[in-house]
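Morning!

This is the sequence you dropped in the shared folder:
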Amino acid sequence: MGTRHNRHASQHKTPCGPQSVWATGQHEPATDLIDRGYHIDTAADTDRVPPAVAERAIEAYCPPRGIVLDPDCGAGTVLAEALRDGRSAIGVTEHRRWRTLATANINAVRYAAGVGGMAFVAAAGDHALRASRAAGLTGQIDLALTSVRTHPPDNTLTTAGAKLRALLENTRPLMRPGARIAIVVPAARTDGTPAGLLRLTLDAGASVGLLPTERCVALTGRLDHGEIISHAQAPLATAAIAQRKYHRRPLIWPAHVDIAMFTVPTTAAVANTQRFPMQSTDEPRWAA
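The structure's back. Tokens below.
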């Protein structure tokens, strides 16, 4: 994986604080994976957190030498970017294929970049939580960063919502008070990703007592003279064109992902929330 290329570093010459829009899509996804040294099979994880988005979120919301958790880590892009940025990383996944691939990506960044932070990938389930607690990590995680997984069998709002709530319930005990939990939410698109995922994500966070604090937009398309150009892959483009031609459906080529940002409440924050409950809205307010 190696050290950061100049083209990546140049995007972060200014402090990486919370912003409502992140310019994280300047490079085509497959090329970005290659340039960062990921295993070739990483592209098969279509619900992965884009490395540039993971990098930006980690730099903005996790302190130096902090601990990053991805409770549904897939191919391990969040873990690799956390290590590359000098943080420790913990990943959890129920799929053996992703555990193997995430471990390979972790080992690659260790070898190429010479980093030595803690990192491991655990199987999903209660034993993963026990392993984390045994390592003294209860209440120690600084940032949880993951994505809503929408591909089969999780391609309906009902199944995605149930899984997300369970994920957040298992994640919260590991977080320190005041820590952030960031959920990357894909946009509705032509290949069947359902609409309404952002509202579902906000409801899932509220159901486990998390405080919604920001909504950010991370671009997955490149900026070109003031326009956002989607990196639509050939199969997606073909499907979209066919739907427009034969079914008169609109083209939906996503060029961004939403990020729902939550804060793990402190005792004082919980008391204030109970005293002055937030008003329910269809969409969270934009970050200033």
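Headline: Confidence is low (pLDDT under 50) at residues 1-18, 269-288.

More detail when I'm at my desk.
O.
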